[in-house]
Structure formats: structure tokens, C-alpha cells
Write a structure and sequence with these properties.
It is a single chain. The protein has 499 residues and is mainly α. The chain has a single domain, classed as Up-down Bundle (Sodium/glucose cotransporter). 75% of the residues lie in helices and 0% in strands. It is built from 18 helices and no strands. The protein has helices at residues 4-28, 33-38, 45-72, 77-93, 95-104, 111-118, 125-157, 161-208, 232-239, 249-257, 264-296, 306-314, 317-354, 361-383, 390-414, 420-439, 456-472, 480-496. α3 (45-72) packs across α8 (161-208), α15 packs parallel to α17 (456-472) and α16 (420-439) runs antiparallel to α17 (456-472). It is a multi-pass membrane protein.
Length: 499
């Protein structure tokens, strides 16, 4: 059985590795706010790929998704398919153009700044509104990671859930405050490797540990996967998760930071390979885990802890300790990205433009670090609700970003007639649709529309239609960067997709 000392040793070693990365990044890439928030646009393809993947998947990859597969079996595969396809399209449609345009548009460092400069307005209303949406939904998103951390420490270390939340936020805040974007990206690269190994090893060893006469009929705790019984509304709802990729600031900011748009095809191949293997491993961890629990007559109070349980039961204590560190890695990779994006939005899009006098680079750097701490504290307070579901919190934040920003990002890059008024109306409409969909009780039992269909697709559709209709009724601006971008991008885009 798993022992506390081995788990503690593994996590402590992992913690010191992250601190080392933070110190290294602080000395090499935090000379100004541009380096602190975007790594100076010098990040390699492999680090970009695994950083985007690890920051995307977070604790839900090792807890939320296995827990969903534990309960619903192969029905959860539709969610996995939607995510992989969405990530592929994101690399094809968004990554190359966004990397080129954000540099041409006066070196935009944040997504709200990109929106503002896209419409030739330094302090456009879209910049402030999108910043507020980022702060709102990222606070929820960060809280989901802290919930996963609290559950991990409670289940694996017999530590209070609340102290688990504190431990998680403390560790991730230290190296994020120290090293900024480079520390987050490099740590994500290491964390992605650890996650991949864990998500292959755990389901394989669990499957080999099952009795030879076990038949996977998916009965009992796992619903039978039967084509005749598939509810297509549910399938479409799960597939629609893929739409969210176009509007996730913590993912698409990786495209902005890569050292060259020409390296994006390499990043795409690495990232999609990692993602496909990891998601398959997560789904089968839940499916095989459910059958393992049936065959061994074990009980599990929380399905989202099935990965933790299998790690403890099936592996040598020291290996189990490193697999628990993999969960911590998944959790912290996303939290650190979210803290940094929230901080960048607060500083670059709010403080910098609404301060009484223009702050110096040194002041911006200090405020950026301070904002990381502020967002971490607020998210921790939300995460103190021990009954929160990791997947539920993630799904709400994912839908919010996908509906508010997804259509705008695509139209900003691909539609010349987009206007500032259309963008502003679309962002607000998408965000409000998601908030209504997930929070307003419309059914007799008090449940919201999200209990029947995921909020992302309705919000995405409303946002897209609103943006197009309002844009057609208003006048689009002209910006030198837009013209230059349109003239040169055919060659740039062709070269970045020729590999």
C-alpha cells in the first residue's frame, strides 16, 4: 500500500524542481513586463506544444475526465473527440495568423490588447470588457484547479481539504511570481511529460491486474455503450467542447509566444500527439478503474479520485508518489497559466491605461507579480467549497471563454468587415448567454438549461450572430497593421503550413 513518506518525498522533490525552474526563469526572462508576460516571444516549438497541452488539460485530465468515464463509460469518448478536433482546428485557423498579427499590431502582449489594436483603438471598450471577462472566468477556472489540489492532498496525504487548497496555491504562486511566462512554460513542458507517462502506465497496469475472465460489457457502474441508445443531443453537447479552444486566452497566448510562426506545424504535431495519447489514457483510466472496483469489491466515495486510488493500490509507493506528483503537475500547470493571464490583463489592459500617470517598466513588473497574488487569494476563497466538482467548474469557465472570445478571435483574423461595435456586442452576448444558461433555473425541478445541453454551443452561436449582424450595420476601421497583415499573410501562412 501507499505510504505517506514516499508521497511526501516525491512531492517535495517536485516542488524543489519547480522552484529551480522559477529561479532560472527569473534570472533569464524577467527584465521587463514583455518578457515576464510573454517570454519575449522566444519559446521553442516543443515547449509551446506541451505548455499549451498541459495548461489546457489541468487537473480535470487526471481527475475530472477519469471520473466522468468511471460513471458514464464510453459516452465520455465524445468529449475527448471534440477536444482533439477542436485543438487541431485551433492550430490550423488561429495559431499562424495570431502569431503574426499580434507582433505586427504594435507587439500586442495580451488578447484584450490584440482586440483593441485590431480596431485601431488603444483604449477601446472591447479591451476593458474582455479584461473583465478574463478576470471573472479565470477566477472560476483557477478555483477548479485548487479544488482538484485540495482533493488530492485530502485523499493521498490525509490532509485537510482546506490545507490542501492552501498548499496547492502556495506552491504554484511561488514559481509563477518568480519566473513569469518562461517559468510557467518550462514547468508545463516537464509537467506534460510526467502526465503522459502516468496516463499510459495507470490504465495499462490496472487492465493487466484484472481477472482474466472479466468481460467489458460496461454494465453496473458504467452504462452500456449502445449505438441504438445513444442520445444524439448529449453527443453534440459533448462534441461542442471543441469550440472552446478558439477563445481560451491561456492556450492561444502560447501561439503568440512561440519563437517563429514557421515552427507552429512542429508544435501542432507534438501537441496533438501528446493530447490524443493523454485523453485516451484518461478515458480508459475511468473505464478500467470502474471494472477494477467491481472485481475487487472496493468502494469509492468520489469518482474523481479513481486515478489516485489506482496509483496507490497498483504501484510501488515511490512510483505512486510520482504519479500523485503528476496530478499536482496537471493542476499547477493550468493554475499558473491562468494566474499569469489574469495578471497580464489586470496590468496591461486595466492598470497601465487607467493609472494617473504612465508607470515605469519596473512598476509594471511589480504590479504584475502583485496581481498574481491577488487572483490566487480570491480563487482560493472560492475553492474552499469542498463540495465543488472539478469538471463542473472547468466546464463553466471553458464555456464562458469559448462563447465570449471564440467567435471574436476567428472573425478578427478571418473577416475584414468586423467592427469594434460588433466585437463588443458579440463578446457581451456570448458571456451573458453562458451565464444565463448555467445559472438561471428554468425547469420545474430548479435546474438550469446546462443540465440538458452544454452552454458553450448556444453561447458561441449567439455571439457569432450578434457580432456579424452588428458589424454589418457599422463601419470597420482601418489600421496600418491590418493592411500590412493582409498583404503579407498569404505567404506567411503558406510557409507555416508547408511543413
Amino acid at each position: 500500500m501507499f505510504t505517506f513518506s514516499y508521497a511526501t518525498l516525491a512531492v517535495v522533490l517536485y516542488f524543489f524542481m519547480l522552484v529551480f525552474i522559477g529561479v532560472y526563469a527569473m534570472k533569464t526572462s524577467t527584465s521587463d513586463n514583455s518578457e515576464y508576460l510573454l517570454g519575449g516571444r522566444k519559446v521553442s516549438a516543443k515547449v509551446t506544444a506541451l505548455s499549451a497541452g498541459a495548461s489546457d488539460m489541468s487537473g480535470w485530465m487526471l481527475m475530472g475526465l477519469p471520473g466522468a468515464a468511471f460513471v458514464s463509460g464510453l459516452d465520455s469518448i465524445w468529449l475527448a473527440i471534440g477536444l482533439v478536433f477542436g485543438a487541431y482546428v485551433n492550430y490550423k485557423l488561429v495559431a499562424p495568423k495570431l502569431r503574426v498579427f499580434t507582433e505586427l499590431a504594435d507587439n500586442a502582449l495580451t488578447i484584450p490588447e490584440f482586440f483593441s489594436k485590431r480596431f485601431a483603438k488603444e483604449n477601446a471598450k472591447i479591451r476593458l470588457v474582455s479584461s473583465l471577462i478574463i478576470i471573472l472566468f479565470f477566477t472560476l477556472y483557477t478555483a477548479s484547479g485548487l479544488v482538484a489540489g485540495g482533493k488530492l492532498f485530502e485523499s493521498a496525504f490525509q490532509l485537510s481539504y482546506y490545507w490542501g487548497v492552501v498548499a496547492t496555491v502556495s506552491i504554484v504562486t511561488i514559481y509563477t511570481v518568480m519566473g513569469g511566462f518562461l517559468a510557467v512554460s518550462v514547468s508545463d513542458f516537464v509537467q506534460g511529460i510526467i502526465m503522459l507517462i502516468a496516463l499510459v502506465a495507470v490504465p495499462v497496469v490496472a487492465y493487466l491486474g484484472l481477472p482474466t475472465d472479466i468481460v467489458f460489457d460496461f454494465s453496473g457502474t458504467v452504462e452500456q455503450f449502445d449505438w441504438s441508445a445513444v442520445q444524439w443531443i448529449s453527443v453534440v453537447s459533448l462534441l461542442s467542447w471543441g469550440l472552446g479552444y478558439f477563445g481560451q486566452p491561456h492556450i492561444i497566448v502560447r501561439f503568440m509566444a512561440i519563437n517563429s510562426h514557421k515552427n507552429l506545424p512542429t508544435a501542432k504535431n507534438i501537441g496533438l500527439s501528446w493530447m490524443t495519447i493523454s485523453i485516451i489514457g484518461a478515458v480508459f483510466t475511468g473505464i478500467v478503474g470502474a471494472k477494477f472496483m467491481q472485481s475487487t469489491h472496493h468502494a469509492l466515495d468520489d469518482p474523481e479520485t479513481i486515478f489516485i486510488f489506482l496509483s496507490q493500490v497498483l504501484f510501488h509507493p515511490f512510483i505512486a508518489g510520482w504519479f500523485l506528483a503528476a496530478i499536482l503537475a496537471a493542476i499547477m500547470s493550468t493554475i499558473s497559466s491562468q494566474l499569469l493571464v489574469s495578471s497580464s490583463s489586470l496590468v496591461e489592459d486595466v492598470y497601465k491605461h487607467y493609472a494617473s500617470k504612465r508607470p515605469s517598466e519596473e512598476q509594471l513588473l511589480k504590479v504584475s507579480r502583485g496581481c498574481v497574488l491577488v487572483v490566487a487569494i480570491v480563487a482560493s476563497i472560492i475553492a474552499f467549497d469542498a463540495n465543488s466538482s472539478v469538471l463542473s467548474l472547468v466546464s463553466n469557465a471553458w464555456a464562458g471563454f469559448g462563447a465570449a472570445f471564440g467567435p471574436l478571435v476567428l472573425l478578427s483574423l478571418w473577416w475584414k468587415k468586423l467592427t469594434h461595435s460588433g466585437a463588443l456586442a458579440g463578446v457581451i452576448a456570448g458571456a451573458l448567454t453562458v451565464l444565463f444558461w448555467i445559472s438561471v433555473p428554468v425547469f420545474a425541478d430548479g435546474s438550469a438549461l446546462s443540465s440538458q445541453f452544454y452552454a458553450l454551443m448556444p453561447g458561441f452561436i449567439v455571439s457569432t450572430l450578434t457580432t456579424i449582424l452588428v458589424s454589418r450595420a457599422t463601419t470597420a476601421p482601418a489600421h496600418p497593421a491590418i493592411n500590412h497583415f493582409e498583404e503579407t499573410h498569404d505567404l506567411v501562412y503558406a510557409s507555416s503550413n508547408s511543413k
